[in-house]
Amino acid sequence: MAFSTRLLSKSRQLYGSQAIHAIPVRFYAKEAAPPGPPLKGDQMLKNIFLEVKKKFETALGILRKEKIIIDPDDPAAVSQYAKVMKTVREKADLFSESQRIQYTVQTRTRDIPDARTYLLTLKDIRIKRGLTDELGAEAMMMDALDKVEKEIKKPLMRDDKKSMALLNAEFDKINKKLGIRKEDFPKYEEQLELKIAKAQLDELKKDALEAMETQKKRCVVG
Fold first, then answer.
1. Distances (CA, A) of 86 to 4, 95, 194
2. What is the dihedral of CA 106, 109, 114, 120, to 10 degrees?
3. pLDDT classification of 221: cutoffs 50, 70, 90
4. What is the rounded CA–CA span in Å between residue 216 and residue 218?
5. Whole-structure pTM value
6. By CB count within 10 A, which of 19, 128, 149, 198 is most buried?
7. What is the tally of helices (H) and strands (E) in the chain?
8. Which regions form coiled coils (predicted)?
9. How much is the CA Rg of the chain, to the nearest whole Å?
């Protein structure tokens, strides 16, 4: 059980730059928060606890049954581990890593009225998650915004559909230049999951070696 629990704790945010920049256009447009009946504090906490407990137990149940080879240098082992973790997410109804990013973007930007603050918030999310902008997409996006705002002669607001269409057209040009295609999003996510799987196996291997070394020292002392 200790090993299975450790696997779950290794979901670190190790993403490629496409994870932030390959976000569907609809996330740039301002959307109203979904309505929902209010819950009392105690009942809300109870529901959250029960939901988390259920997901955790489901994930542990799957991990106990799966054979995992801790070899980050073996592509087959990395692929198998990625498949296991994907099964865990699907069965336990957990977010994938790219879905987590999209959810964070949605919740943090929902009430932002203008495009510039939106893009700066996107940059802040990237930095705080330890992501790198290897493609230089952020600078291109800000240049595109500058171009549109110069054309419309005012700050671009996200509810200005006509002007937002101009910005989205510029973003499409950027995606084309960087080789990012909407139809390739599933491939990007698969590549992302393999990178994460390898990184997590690296961490598990490091933990295992440290545990073995600690045990050896104890045996020598004993």
1. 15, 10, 10
2. -110
3. low
4. 5
5. 0.58
6. 19
7. 9, 0
8. 187-218
9. 22
CA dihedral for 187, 191, 194, 196, sign (positive or negative): negative
Choice among 67-71, 76-80, 134-138, 153-157 with the minimum mean pLDDT: 67-71
Residues 6+ apart with CB under 8 A from 171: 25, 28, 141, 144
Would you tell me the crossing angle of helices 75-92 and 41-65 to the nearest 10 degrees?
140
How far apart are the C-alpha atoms of 49 and 62, rounded to whole Å?
Answer: 20
The pLDDT value recorded for residue 222 is 58
Query: Does residue 61 come out as left (phi exceeding 0), alpha (psi in the -120 to 50 range) or beta?
Result: alpha
121 pLDDT exceeds 60?
yes
Contact at 8 Å (CB) between 133 and 17? yes
